[in-house]
Amino acid sequence: MFKIGSRNIGKGFKPFIIAEVSANHGGSIQRAKDTLLAAKNSGADAVKIQTYTPDTMTIDSNMADFQITDGIWKGYNLYQLYQEAHTPFEWHKELFEFAKLNNIVLFSTPFDETAVDLLDSLNVPAFKIASFEITDLPLINYVASKGKPMFLSTGISNVNEIGEAVESCYQNGNKDILLFHCISSYPANLSDSHLGDISYIAQHFDIEVGLSDHTTSNLASILAVAKGASAIEKHFKLDDK
Predict the structure, then answer these.
(1) CA distances from 18 to 45, 46, 166, 180, 215 (A)
(2) Which spans in 86-240 are helix H?
(3) Span 166-196, pLDDT tens digits
C-alpha cells in the first residue's frame, strides 16, 4: 500500500481511477483544461498526461522504419505524429496550476530526463512509466530516485524485463510502485485482455497491480478489480470528435 495525496492505493481500498488524456486535447490547452475538469466530474481520482517533445522521442525521417502504415495516423512519420500529439512543455506549469486550483490530482509519463526534471520542478505527486519505456533502466533509475510513487505499464515486456524494472526501483530506495497489466494495442480487443496476468504479476512480484485498459468498454476494468486490481487507467476524451 502507498499513498497519493490522501488516497490509499492497495488491496482493501477503493480502486484508484486514472483518466489518461494522452493526445486527446487535440492541440488545445483549453480543451486540455476542459478534459481535466470533465474527468474529475466523472469521478476519476487522477488525470495523467504525457511529457515529451518530438525531438526527445525520435528524428524527422521518412525512411520506412519511421513511417506509420495503418491506424488513424497512417501516412504520418513518427516525428509528425509526436509533433501533433504532444503536450507542449510550455503548457505544463499552467495545467498543473489549473489542476491545483480545481483540486485535481495531475501527474504524467516522462520519456526522458528533461521531462522528469520538468515534472519534478512542478512537484508531481507520482510518475508513470509507459510500456515501451519499461526496459529503459536509466530512465527508471532516474525517476525512482525522485522518491515519488510510480506506475509501470508492462505491455510489451516479459517477466525478466519487469523484474529488472522493479529491481531498479528498489535499488533507488523506491518501493511505492504499482505494475499495470497492459495490452499494447489501441484499441485492444476484450478477448485479448489476459486478465489472469493480474494475479500472476501480483503473486510473482508480491506487488500492487492494476490494469491499463485499452478496450472500448468497461468490462475488462470491472473484471480486473474483481481479480485484485488496485488501480485502473483508462483513456479519456470529451467526445469522438
Answers:
(1) 6, 5, 21, 12, 15
(2) 89-101, 113-121, 137-144, 159-171, 196-205, 219-226
(3) 999 999 999 999 999 988 877 877 778 788 8
